[in-house]
Amino acid sequence: QVQLVESGGGLVQAGGSLRLSCAASGRTFSSDSMAWFRQTPGKEREFVAAISWRGSTGYADSVKGRFTIFSANAKNTVYLQMNSLKPEDTAVYYCAVRLPGGGEYDYWGQGTQVTVSS
Q: Do the beta carbons of residue 51 and residue 107 sit within 8 Å?
């Protein structure tokens, strides 16, 4: 049973930093891609950042240069370092896993709230 548990969310002032963590269990993730998404009320969930099994990364334009995704322990933990936070970064942040050969993301965490005050 794959489980993803996010942590590290909270309230921060604009310009501040937070580091989100995603603890993954239930399989070996070294061949999987992992990602962070976010969602605000009334809007669709949007892509934030991803890291492939090779370690290559990709970011949404809105966070490029401010956020960094990285992993540890053969991707059993995936982090999202968020710097220079803006009020528009306020959202629930979700961790997700895509299995090899998959198109959509297969597993999702429950999310962690990030609130950035102005």
A: no
- Alpha-carbon torsion 32, 38, 42, 44, what sign? negative
By the 8 A CB rule, do 106 and 97 touch? yes
3, 24 Cβ separation under 8 angstroms: yes
User: Could you tell me the CA-to-CA distances from 99 to 33, 35, 49, 81, 94 in Å, in that order?
Assistant: 7, 12, 16, 23, 17
pLDDT digits (tens, 9 = 90+) for 26-74: 987 878 899 999 999 999 999 999 999 888 999 999 999 999 999 987 7
Where helices occur in the chain by DSSP H, the ranges are: none
Two tokens, residue 53: 């099994």
Please state, in angstroms and as integers, the Cα–Cα distance from residue 97 to each residue in 38, 55, 105, following that order. 14, 14, 6
Tell me how far the alpha carbon of residue 102 is from its chain's centroid. 18
Beta-strand pair 3-7/18-25: antiparallel
Distance CA 14, CA 24 (A): 29
